[in-house]
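User: I'm preparing a small set of examples for a lab meeting where we compare how different chains pack in three dimensions. I only have the primary sequence for this one, and I'd like the structure in token form so I can line it up with the others. Please keep the answer compact; I'll paste it straight into my notes.
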Amino acid sequence: MRRAVILAAAVLACVAPGACRRTNNARPADRDPAAVLRLFPQETLFVVTADIGRIRAAPITAKLGALKVVYASVASGIDALAAVIGLDPWTQFDSVTIGGMSLQGGTAIVFRGRAIDEARVTANARARLANDGDELISRRYGKRTVWTTRKRPETAAVFLDGGTLVLGSNAWVKRIVDLADGAGAEPSAASNPSLVAAWGELSASALWGAGVLPREARDYLEGDFRLRSLGTMRRVTVAVDLTDALDAKLAIDFGDVAQAEDLAEDLATLLARERRAKRDAPAYQALFKGLTEYADGPTFRAELRLSKDAAVQFAEAMAVGSNVAKPPSELPAPSARALTLKRDWLAPPPTDVTLSDVRSYDAWDRRTHALFEVVNRSDKPVVPEIVIRYRDGDDKKLDERHCRVPTIVLLAHERIGCDPGVPPAAATAIYTIRTAPAERAAAFAAKSRVTLKVAGARLERTSGAVLWLEGQVKNTTAAIVRDARVHATFYDGEQKIVGYGDIIAAANLAPGASATFRLQSGPLFAPAKSFTAIGFSLIVPR
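Assistant: Understood. Below is the structure token output for the 542-residue chain.
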């Protein structure tokens, strides 16, 4: 949320609203939070407000701030801009309110704060625009100076006083100026009883929003049999409270009890399906666990309650997913992490299994990786058990983790990657490798693993933050194979491991059939030049 607020300020500087000039005759705006409704025209249909003070003070905010590295490209650019213009929205803004008729037009943003260095922002905006071949244009409107740019004349900005800045379409900025100065008799959004009621109910929340459906829109929907049920919708409100947990509440007011009940039933069915589909994703399971929905008379209600840790986990999962397609230039490069790897002198490792030197690094996914390559150097199957015991700089034990081989059993001369991660304070790691007896390993390989053929695999040359491998996996057995998987290990030019990835290519694969796969690596230690790929299933047909 902090970054979102700063981003809003960055937009001001880029589009020139930050270059609005304070007029000497501007009277101070009413600082009552609800007074912002009196700045929006009467036909305003939605209002969304962020109370920056409450967000700053919320216990969860510091934890969410730790996600900066995941949003590194956005955060660094905005932080740099904020430093140049001499404006810190996080401490200088009290609230940000967006209101309008639609997201495409007739919209305005009201920033309310204090101690904004207008002169510095103006100078910066002029310099930025000049570098882009653009210029700042001013014109008088009533008592105010309204600012636009030559290339974007449809967007305007104005200072109403030393702590109120408005950015919006030209038409709406003019109307907001008239409302602020009391020019004319035009009514404001404060005359809309539904929005006023929502403000009274929700304005104690850190984030809230309300939207109303006008009479003409309801008439249109009720006249279309496909959309008739939506015509009973009167008002939608959302409120987010940030205390020891994240508590978000949604309410949709209908004129029809049956419509609220139908929506609750449809959503319950959808959530049940999504719970099953994402049963292996802890972040989503925490999300589903904290979600409730029900019909309260003609009102549909849904509430999402997440602990601080669960909220951070979900936000992180969403951010990591969005970063996958970004070019490396927009993400922080992996930074090597000092970690000394030692073998357990009390349990000498077997000769048939070796562990490569660790590649330990901090990556953009906020994880410290400990990347190993496990190699079967024998002509027989092996079942390795690899335990990593981490110790701090004072040689005190921190944690014990297993370096799990995805295939469980390694066939002759196979090599595969694993990554148990690294505790924050780890300085050294001691590894122990044990293997099952040869006879048991051979029996386990026959009963617990199906080997599939990987064909046509090739690296996909993309500019994303991860590497993609595409190809086909073929069932060369005489039985249907369930959960056909592919594991790929990636190497640099010196054949040292730099990353790996896994994917389920097909839920069921008939005898002789092939399935196309597109496998994604995790964050790489360095650019990959080559790979190995293994097709397998851990469900042996009976």
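A couple of notes for your slides: The longest strand covers residues 497-509. Confidence is low (pLDDT under 50) at residues 1-31.

User: Perfect, thanks.
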